Amino acid sequence: MLTQLTVSNYAIAERVELQFNKGMTAFTGETGAGKSIVLDALGLAMGGRADAGAVRHGAKRADITATFDVSGIPEAGDWLAQHELDDDNDCILRRVISKDGRSRAYINGQPCPLNHLKELGGLLMDIHSQHQHQSLLRKDTHRKLVDEFAGVEALAADTREAWKTWNQIRQRLTERRQNADEAEAKLQLLRYQVEELDRLALEDGEQEQLEQEQAQLSQADAVLHSSHQAALLCTEDETSAADLVRQALQQLEQLPVDVPALADTIQMLNEAQIQISEAGDNLRHFVEDYEADPARLAEVEERLSAIYQMARKHRITPEELPELHQRLSAELAELDGGEGSLEQLEAELESQRARFDDLACKLSEARAKAAAELDQRVAAELAQLSMPNMQFITHLNRSNGEEPMPHGLEEIEFLVSANPGQPARPLAKVASGGELSRISLAIQVVVAQTSTTPTLVFDEVDVGIGGGTAEVVGRLLRTLGSNGQVLCVTHLPQVAAQCHQHLFVSKFTEQDATFSKIETLDDHGRISEVARMLGGVDMTEHTIAHAREMFSKGQATHH
């Protein structure tokens, strides 16, 4: 529910601060006083379009802040929590518009994209304006209203999504069929490439191991020769390392006296003699066991040559061959009997069409049931609005074609018959301006009664209505207000007399500047304003008495 609205430097409003209650709130005043400023400002707070003309002349920016109590709106609370913007039960929407036309949006003090204001605003408030009379002539509006009345927006969205998926698969299938020759050539190439890589069967790290083995095998003679010479130098030659160490030990052992300082050195030479002897033995065993394998060398070099050749063919490094093999195999699997094949796409298309048909049939059943109820309830409202002979029909026109439609199996159009015996025809071809206004109000009242949106706004939807019908309009709006919150701009005293809260809008000029002023009227002020709306400038005692009677009757109205 809207609890507070603050408007600064918007249009001719320099500063407006308003408190709102539950029930029906009416805005009245002379034509041009700025009654629609509040509702237009609310539209901007809900994410509506803005331009530099919205900023009051001479000001740098317009600032609009709307505060809502969301304690009774779980959908809004969930949205705020999901976006980490929740702040107890309060929700503050703010819009700042600079004189160059740029704007900024905030939710609970945090900057946000404009579409977030629209999403959240749609959960908090529903605005019906007199301009919707024109939208009422469009079929897409009719479908939207029926789906809202039936409570099948989610089902309709699922149906559209199913159609979108079906259409995407159909387009892919069409492209595959049109490019069948090219696709077949690509498929053959992929098969050949994958078969080659399958035969190569290169494993990760295999190339590096082969290169190491090749280096060893190709230098077998050099390894044997060097190892043999090393063995000789260790133990077998007359001047071998072992013999020289032995001679050094003999020299130290023949010292004429015991020299303790040389004990560690003698120990080291003894250990060296042992190490050299063991190294010599190991070298002899290596030379005896080592075998050069020309056949294995040829095998390794042939394998490496095949790897290098395959890499050059695909213009990549040998290390990249395993990844290429995996990627081409996956692409082949997708085209050859997997996802993306003609057979698979045809199966997917059939499956998705069945899903669409199932959703669309359920949607059609719900629409047909809702349409019958909507017709009955709109007819009842039209009778109250002095149009008892107006027949209202929600026509569901099933498509005869095989082609699915994004919005289901039928087009929806509102038809009316102004007089008994006349065929029902589209609104645009039958209804006059005044009739269209009343039909629009009847539809909006019926749809609003099933709406979960707590705040409903009606901007001069009672244009072209007067007399006893105007009193009925007031009762309808008051009934809606008793179930939630209704804001309405009206020129009709019969409507204003029935509101729970009355705001009077006026304008004045000061120092060549025009200002708009909005004040909350008490009972005396409300009677005076209803009298002004009844009698114009000159208010007689009779007019005031009539206004008092109308006010008393309106406040006693309960539905």
The whole-angstrom Rg is: 45 Å
Flag low-confidence runs: none
Q: Count every helix, treating DSSP H or I runs of 4 or more residues as helices.
A: 20
Overall strand count? 15
What's the overall average pLDDT, rounded?
84
Q: Which descriptors apply to this entry?
A:
six-stranded mixed β-sheet, alpha/beta, 18% strand, 559 residues, six-stranded antiparallel β-sheet, 20 helices
Tell me what the structure shows.
The protein has 559 residues and is an alpha/beta fold. It has a domain at 201-336. It has 20 helices and 15 strands. The strands form three sheets. A six-stranded antiparallel sheet has the order 2-1-4-5-6-7, with helices on one face. A six-stranded mixed sheet has the order 8-12-13-3-14-15. The protein has a three-stranded antiparallel sheet with strand order 9-10-11. A hairpin with a 7-residue loop joins strand 10 and strand 11. Helix 19 packs across helix 20 (541-555). It is elongated and about 150 Å long. The two termini are 21 Å apart. The mean pLDDT is 84. It comes from Marinobacter salsuginis. Residues 2-507 form the RecF/RecN/SMC N-terminal domain. Belongs to the RecN family. May be involved in recombinational repair of damaged DNA.
